[in-house]
Amino acid sequence: IRCWSNIPFITVPLSRAHGKSFAHRSELKHAKRIVVKLGSAVVTRGDECGLALGRLASIVEQVSMLQNQGREMMIVTSGAVAFGKQRLRHEILLSQSVRQALHSGQSQLKDMAIPVLEARACAAAGQSGLMALYEAMFTQYSICAAQILVTNLDFHDEQKRRNLNGTLHELLRMNIVPIINTNDAVVPPPEPNSDLQGVNVISVKDNDSLAARLAVEMKTDLLIVLSDVEGLFDSPPGSDDAKLIDIFYPGDQQSVTFGTKSRVGMGGMEAKVKAALWALQGGTSVVIANGTHPKISGHVITDIVEGKKVGTFFSEVKPAGPTVEQQAEMARAGGRTLAALQPEQRAEIIYRLADLLTDQREEILLANKKDLEEAENKGRLALPLLKRLSLSTSKLNSLAIGLRQIAASSRDSVGRVIRRTRIAKDLDLEQVTVPIGVLLVIFESRPDCLPQVSALAIASGNGLLLKGGKEAAHSNQILHHLTQEALSIHGVRDTVQLVNTREEVEDLCRLDKLIDLIIPRGSSQLVRNIQKAAKGIPVMGHSEGICHVYVDTDASVEKVTRIIRDSKCEYPAACNALETLLIHRDLLRSPLFDQIIDMLRVEQVKIHAGPKFASYLTFGPSEVKSLRTEYGDLECCIEVVDSVQEAVEHIHKYGSSHTDVIITENEKTAEFFLQHVDSACVFWNASTRFSDGYRFGLGAEVGISTSRIHARGPVGIEGLLTTKWLLRGDNHVVSDFSEHGSMKYLHESLPLPQRNVN
């Protein structure tokens, strides 16, 4: 028998009917039976007198949602003392003949002395009200709740323990939510404590132990302990360098320094950790999280059950490799070392990676073959995605060529002076290029993306976290291994990290203290999801690629069909493929228009009619549902416009600011289009497919950005750099430049150093 907080724990065998605890957060969604422990700080208001009704209502809503999903929910709650204190204070004020003061305002009550209230009396007065509140809230979700009060003595009697166990099982069988609390009205007198102002508080820390005991005894899958801190930190929260521990393992106690307890309650984090470890030993998974934070408390319980990265997860299984947080820190440290290398050394790394792609071609293609076979067997990838997943000798050769271009163009990227100003005599200012920091690149079904992005990160001196799709796991693994092999020639192997843990993309997007920029490479849905999930981290990319081609009245017959065919049919799944074809009205029923339609039919392109185009048709394609559609396949929309001005207006209204094209022989019309279309890429008599980093001569790209801040269009090395200011002086102080000072500002522009163009 082990005793914590006056409650004896009878150790149970680990061979439980419900098995061992979950090893990973992602498995928590399978939890069937769940205990939610509500700490005093969660249930009570900030003034420690009365309940936090808003938080309580949110918790009840989440518990009800999970209960209605077929789970078995139990609540271990505090709050009776605080609720009772509120009621008794009110009664005392009334009994002191201050009814008139109550009606006239609260100002007269401030000076009235409130006697110290005995905690057991507060509990007795508050228990019925607390339960009535729970019942009223659960009734809103058609759920019945039942109250169970226990004392320490109930756990000393084997028969009482069995009765309690049987009662709880019967309630769960009837789909009733048990609400358990210590019977603070009859417990032995506590030692004097000023924990709650004006109340000698019952040792409510027993609720941590009570929750753990019930969780194990009821063979619960998951215990959620809600407090007023985000979870377990490696040092007291609020102290310098305190870091939230994502996963806590038995035996890690020596790495943690416990601080003071919460504003109410007796448990403190140390008691919670002890109770959590005991429950973990008994086969119950545990998460300690914040139930008071207004931004997360409304979904903290459901987020935990969904496996999201909330609070501290207790696990008995240590991962084989580093955590994603550790990987991000390694990438940052490696990136700083990489940025300090000579440009020639960074170029050597990229040249080495290019050589490895061709030298290790057979191993790469063998790994890729495994990915393709698994994807085909599972049938989970559409044909366009299978094409993206596939690698070939020609693809690897093209990759190697692109990497050598990056290496050649990277020699003057980091540390380049872009502005020099003489502020005053012997006071010179420089603006120089520097890496952004740590990049997180998330990509789907594109293993060739890994060496491309890695090379750009190396050239720009950035640390890199890569999160690839599981469908390309074998390909990504060998390509990452080769990347680290290349990095090793200058001792910066850890600069590029491949995230292989079960981290959800949404959890990675919350690492705002570790990641400086997120770059998604994949479907428009992926980009939108990441833009929505990113918490305080900039996202570079585009959510849609709605590209237009406008055929003007002065268009060349020879050029029109070639450019349209290439824009739509060369790779219809690409983000820079044609989606809407704009035709000048005067070209309708012309031979050129017939040639366009015939070519699209031959290429088996499905045509959708825009509203104006549909109005000219007696029969034909049905009217399109939306002019803002990215088809990503052999489909496109045709719409009619009256002028180049109307074409520009249409693009601004329905486009995605990606890539737009005009086909015309009229230079004046073309220049109008080029100057007025507000997109990242605007072309004249050229295919939309030229919107690509490799084709632009950037060597490769990390993506195409439609943002108006920082990089825009295909993003190469330049888009992965920012700047810093260097000021070199000689005992200069601002006061010397005051009205009566001895120095004057010059602000003279100085010539830039000669760039290395070799």
TrEMBL record:
Protein name, per record: Delta-1-pyrroline-5-carboxylate synthase
Cellular localisation: Mitochondrion matrix
Pathway where this protein functions: Amino-acid biosynthesis; L-proline biosynthesis; L-glutamate 5-semialdehyde from L-glutamate: step 1/2; Amino-acid biosynthesis; L-proline biosynthesis; L-glutamate 5-semialdehyde from L-glutamate: step 2/2
Species this protein is from: Origma solitaria
InterPro entries: AceGlu_kinase-like_sf, Ald_DH/histidinol_DH, Ald_DH_C, Ald_DH_N, Aldehyde_DH_dom, Asp/Glu/Uridylate_kinase, G-glutamylP_reductase_CS, G5K_ProBA
Known EC number: 1.2.1.41, 2.7.2.11
HAMAP family: ProA (MF_00412), ProB (MF_00456)
Main localization (coarse): mitochondrion
Keyword Ubl conjugation: no
